[in-house]
Amino acid sequence: MSTVREPDLEPSSIHAGWSEDDYLGLETNRRVEFTRGFVEVLPMPTVLHQGIVAVLFTALQAFVSARGLGEALFAGVRVRLSDGTYREPDVVFMAAQHAGRIGELFWEGADLVMEVVSPDRPERDLVRKREEYAQAGIPEYWIVDPRNGLVTVLALEGPAYAVHGTFSAGATATSRLLEGFAVEVSRIVAPRIP
After folding, report:
1. How far apart are CA 77 and CA 93, in angstroms?
2. Are 107 and 93 in contact, with CB atoms under 8 Å apart?
3. CA distance from start to end of the chain
4. Where are the domains of the chain?
5. pLDDT in tens, 118-134
6. Which letter does DSSP use for residue 102 in this model?
7. What is the 3-state secondary structure (H, E, C) of 106-153?
8. How many Cα atoms occupy the beta-carbon half-sphere of 105 within 13 Å?
9. Is the pLDDT of residue 1 over 90?
């Protein structure tokens, strides 16, 4: 394995020429994603962002653990989408029947991912990750856009996502994958933060 260089930790900085081993050997407390030789340092999450992630994770964790459906975790878990592509979703779920895909350094795919749209580069969550998650065969993708107060739930149909539902304040966002899992949008896009 080559010597791991610590990238400059400026938010949204992108660095070329990295190998998968370099990326997996990187030790940092920043969120860093890897796409075919390029390392991207993600911006530090805001309090609002973390509040949204907390609501989503708490609801998902309670639902899946009560039913023994699998494992739910929050950002910091590397998810390998394909050779040379790793993302760190804000919230991630792996069904119990796929537990063998959970590794210590990274997960091989996932069954459901949730992302809060980053204000610095919204296209990353709205377009790029939508394409990458679909290509990786992840059955469900939740996109939370706090700027517009929307939660879009996408379900994989063939090679691409179809909209299961676009939910706004006053509505309840529902999952197609996890029957019965639902969260009030008002709780998600305007979390109570002390």
Report:
1. 10
2. no
3. 45
4. 1-44, 47-189
5. 888 899 899 999 999 99
6. B
7. CEECCCEEEEECCCCCHHHHHHHHHHHHHHCCCCEEEEEECCCCEEEE
8. 10
9. no
CA distance 16 to 19: 9
Look at the domain 47-189 and name its fold.
Answer: tt1808, chain A (3.90.1570)
Would you say 72 and 178 are in contact if contact means Cβ atoms under 8 Å apart?
no
Q: How does pLDDT run across 95-111, given as a tens digit for each residue?
A: 999 999 999 999 999 99
Which amino acid belongs to residue 149? G
Q: Which pLDDT value is given to residue 14?
A: 62
Helix, coil or strand: residue 71: strand
Low-confidence winner among 15-24, 35-44, 54-63, 73-82 (lowest mean pLDDT): 15-24
Helix (H, G, I), strand (E, B) or coil at 92: strand
pLDDT at 58 over 80: yes
